[in-house]
Amino acid sequence: MTRPAIAVTGLGLVTAAGIGVAANREMIWSGTPTARRDPKLAGLPVDISCTVPDFDPARHVGRRSELSHDRFVQLGLTAAAEAIADAGLDPSTWDGARVGVVIGCGLGGVSTWERQHRQLLGPGPETVSALLIPMLVPNMVAGHLAIRFGATGPNFVTATACASGATAIGSAMALLRDDLCDVVLTGGAEAGVSPLIVTGFARMGALSGRLDDPAAASRPFDVDRDGFVVGEGSGILVLERETDARARGATIRARVAGYGSSADGHHMTAPDPTGAGATRALSAALADAGLGIADVDHVNAHGTSTPLNDVTEARMLRRTLGDRASVTSVKGVVGHSLGAAGAIEAAVTALTVQQASVPPTANLDSLDPEIELDVVAKAARAQPVEVAVSNSFGFGGQNAVLVFTP
After folding, report:
1. pTM of the complete model beyond 0.70
2. Is 336 an annotated catalytic residue?
């Protein structure tokens, strides 16, 4: 049986590059880094981050939500509202039972956890918020999207570390292919810029120590890269069957043509140096799309800016694709948004396909000689993209790959 094509009809983005797709397009395609010193991290071993600028919860999600929702939910609600409007959908008129929500999130309400733990240890247990648990648990981003937009179909959150957003999109595709939904709001949301989380990554040696030049700290594939910068944000995509989207006259930004996942089964944080698991995920995604290795002409890489991860991914891509596909990483601009990263990068990949333009990898001054790829640097590249893959890899050896076509 022929499976239905899945269309991207709406996009919403909230990242350190700005609030909204237009702001993100401008910053990401210009290769403008967003990392900066962060006052709430003052005194820590690493005090730089990529945070959403000028985000006013009261304005974007309402005063009540400002008080009762953790920041990761607020970011998700904001991106979802834009995506729904971009798709030309009206939640007041849709059949909510046929609208699903699948969101990736790795951490949940860590800022709420930290704040309320201080209350417990300080003033005492009677000052801990009664809303602690519903503000903390990761599934509440999907739950609140359902409440806000009347989406009463399948509803869940995926947690595959930094592959969470891509895993969510792959899961959303299955709901549409199996005719369990007509519309799915999918993507990722994360607000992990907190003292505890940043310190944890710093203790692992995963973060950049370029504290005297924050804007240059996140530099995927550069020979002088030394770690990533923790970011935050949300990327939400509206997915529909292409036949349904065309029937209602929707604008289709791109197709999500395939999805593949795998596990390294190797180490809790380090990637398998052979790249075998990532290769399996890539092959599965292309097979799912009915395409082959030779069809790929662009890769939105996981590209974290860590020494080991970048070279491992690059070797896998070189071995499988050669050097004919253009490669980019948006983490040089927006940092690493953890569980939301795969969704943000999926949205950027959809824009890349739609616009026939590849954004540059920010801060790539000197390509690591071990990375034998055509990495786009310095300026965006005009390029018709027929088959793009978006890689996402997470702790625990979680691999997720999405395929996008025009």
Report:
1. yes
2. yes
